[in-house]
């Protein structure tokens, strides 16, 4: 077993070295925007199709660069604990910081040995990836503009304003400044490659089961969604043709916020109370009707005499005779 553990630790050393190399030239801020793009405009849809809460780990192969564990900063980002805007805590060592930027710098300085996840034992671990490298493909800049306009972005932005002059003929492609058609084509190809790596068809299986077909159908649907949401907008504009779709044009199911979760819980509880209350009410009323329709003779006359006239009093009377003192009721 010494040999096995040595090879595991060697493999982890290599993996860590690889992750450190990727992280060294990767922007944390841009990676965060890319992460936000995916979790705002894509994963909620994939989760719904695959019927899971975490399609980003459960429904994609390790070779997918969007796999949650591929993000080289995932562990660091998860270790950031925001108490409020001026109070950030490092969950790895417990130190507190007055801004996210200081905490980022601290992680960079102190915790570059803690880039890997604990589960790094098995072989099917995604290759460490710089999410920021996919920012052009994922239209990070458009998303960042939206976040900034909603006031949801603090601190330095990851993008400098476009410095290149705008094209003289025709409007510039939305938000990306002026880039060549060749660059647009390159982004489209990179986008398609990601879609294929993550949600490519599995039609090469030798044995076809009904389940495989079902999974293929889901993967195809998500593949098509990804292409429409992110890739189709990477098309060269030209005055004679109709413009390509805008990024993020497809709606996704909205992930529930904490407040929405509480509202849903309260509404759910209220519904249950109302339903149970109604059921109870009808149970009591039916019992009453049954009891009064059994004896048409003396019994009824006696009961009617004792019976209050107003509705509210009737309910009180029902509750008294049927619910709280059922034994006494049996006497007559
Ligand atoms: Zn720390």
Please estimate the helix content: 55-70%
Give the N-to-C terminal Cα separation.
83 Å
Q: Which residue ranges are poorly predicted, with pLDDT under 50 across at least 5 consecutive positions?
A: 160-176
Number of β-strand runs: 3
Cα-based radius of gyration, to the nearest Å: 31 Å
Summarize the main sheet: 3 strands, antiparallel
Quote the average pLDDT.
82
Strand order of the largest sheet: 1-2-3
Proportion of residues in β-strands: under 5%
Q: What small ligands are held by the chains?
A: zinc ion
Structural class computed from helices and strand pairing: mainly alpha
Q: Give me the number of helical elements.
A: 14
Q: Give the overall shape.
A: elongated
The arrangement of helices and strands along the chain is HHHHHEEEHHHHHHHHH
Structure description:
By secondary structure, the protein is mainly alpha-helical. Among the domains are: 28-65 and 127-155 and 173-231, no CATH class; 258-331, no CATH class. It contains 14 helices and three strands. Strands 1-2-3 form a three-stranded antiparallel beta sheet. α2 crosses α8, α3 (43-50) packs antiparallel against α10 and α9 (181-199) packs antiparallel against α10 (210-231). Mean pLDDT is 82; it is low at 160-176. Zinc ion binds next to α6.
């Amino acid at each position: 077993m010494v040999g096995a553990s040595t090879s595991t630790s060697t493999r982890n050393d290599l993996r860590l070295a690889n992750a450190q190399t990727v992280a060294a030239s990767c922007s944390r801020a841009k990676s965060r925007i890319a992460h936000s793009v995916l979790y705002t405009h894509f994963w909620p849809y994939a989760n719904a199709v695959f019927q899971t809460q975490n399609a980003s780990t459960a429904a994609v192969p390790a070779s997918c660069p969007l796999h949650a564990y591929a993000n080289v900063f995932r562990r660091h980002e998860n270790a950031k604990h925001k108490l409020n805007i001026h109070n950030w805590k490092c969950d790895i060592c417990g130190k507190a910081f007055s801004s996210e930027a200081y905490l980022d710098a601290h992680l960079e300085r102190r915790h570059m040995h803690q880039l890997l996840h604990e589960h790094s034992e098995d072989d099917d671990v995604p290759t460490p990836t710089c999410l920021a490298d996919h920012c052009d493909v994922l239209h990070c800049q458009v998303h960042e503009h939206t976040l900034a306009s909603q006031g949801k972005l603090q601190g330095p932005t990851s993008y400098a304003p476009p410095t290149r002059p705008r094209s003289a003929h025709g409007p510039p492609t939305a938000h990306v400044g002026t880039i060549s058609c060749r660059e647009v084509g390159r982004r489209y190809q990179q986008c398609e490659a990601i879609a294929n790596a993550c949600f490519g068809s599995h039609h090469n299986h030798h044995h076809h089961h009904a389940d495989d077909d079902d999974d293929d159908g889901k993967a195809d649907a998500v593949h098509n969604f990804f292409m429409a949401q992110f890739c189709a907008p990477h098309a060269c504009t030209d005055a004679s043709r109709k413009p390509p779709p805008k990024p993020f044009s497809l709606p996704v199911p909205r992930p529930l916020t904490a407040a929405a979760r509480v509202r849903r819980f309260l509404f759910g509880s209220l519904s249950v109370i109302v339903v149970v209350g109604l059921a109870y009410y009808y149970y009591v009323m039916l019992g009453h009707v049954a009891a009064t329709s059994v004896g048409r003779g003396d019994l009824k006359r006696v009961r009617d005499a004792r019976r209050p006239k107003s509705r509210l009093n009737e309910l009180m009377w029902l509750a008294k005779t049927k619910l709280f003192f059922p034994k006494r009721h049996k006497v007559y």
